[in-house]
UniProtKB/TrEMBL annotation:
The keyword Cytoplasm applies. Belongs to the vinculin/alpha-catenin family. GO terms for cellular component: adherens junction; catenin complex; cytoskeleton. This is CTNA1 protein. Residues 1-27 are annotated as: Disordered. InterPro entries: Alpha-catenin/vinculin-like_sf (IPR036723), Alpha_catenin (IPR001033), Vinculin/catenin (IPR006077). The gene is Ctnna1_2. Pfam families: Vinculin.
């Protein structure tokens, strides 16, 4: 994040990332987890129209915000800014989760969505760490306070994602029954 000479760099400064790089194309594969004999996508397709409309409205709102974020993020050179790299990765994962609610995208079942939520939480935690490093070096107290306020929100959202994904994973593992509500 901060300019460093090659001599200042340490091998421990580099972490390997386990993010899946997936295309935006939908791939139809078999769902290996079923709920009452049906895939999660099939159940989503059978929702009442008012719930489908509500989901569609939320997806449209999300896509509008995603477009704004993409436009803003594309202005930055991601090769020199770790926070931008993390934001782009998180955005791609969120888009895959949104596609799942519409029966599209690479996520095939609820456990894939849970795994994606965990990845977002992990990336958010790394973003929080980087942001706090920047805040520690920020000379402007107003900017520092704003940044710390945003970082608190990121930490809260990451914590919520971790709790939800752990609860969902436990529910899935108990008796092999899947609960789709809340996904």
């Amino acid at each position: 994040l901060f300019p460093q000479t090659p001599e200042e760099l340490d091998d421990s400064d580099f972490e390997t990332e386990d993010f899946d790089v997936r295309s935006r194309t939908s791939i139809q594969t078999e769902d290996d987890q079923l709920i009452a004999g049906q895939s999660a996508r099939a159940i989503m397709a059978q929702l009442p129209q008012e719930q489908k409309a509500k989901i569609a409205e939320q997806v449209a709102s999300f896509q509008e915000e995603k477009s704004k974020l993409d436009a803003e993020v594309s202005k930055w050179d991601d090769s020199g800014n770790d926070i931008i790299v993390l934001a782009k990765q998180m955005c791609m994962i969120m888009m895959e989760m949104t596609d799942f609610t519409r029966g599209k995208g690479p996520l095939k079942n609820t456990s894939d969505v849970i795994s994606a939520a965990k990845k977002i939480a992990e990336a958010g935690s790394r973003m929080d760490k980087l942001g706090r490093t920047i805040a520690d070096h920020c000379p402007d107290s107003a900017c520092k306070q704003d940044l710390l306020a945003y970082l608190q929100r990121i930490a809260l959202y990451c914590h919520q994602l971790n709790i939800c994904s752990k609860v969902k994973a436990e529910v899935q593992n108990l008796g092999g029954e899947l609960v789709v509500s809340g996904v």
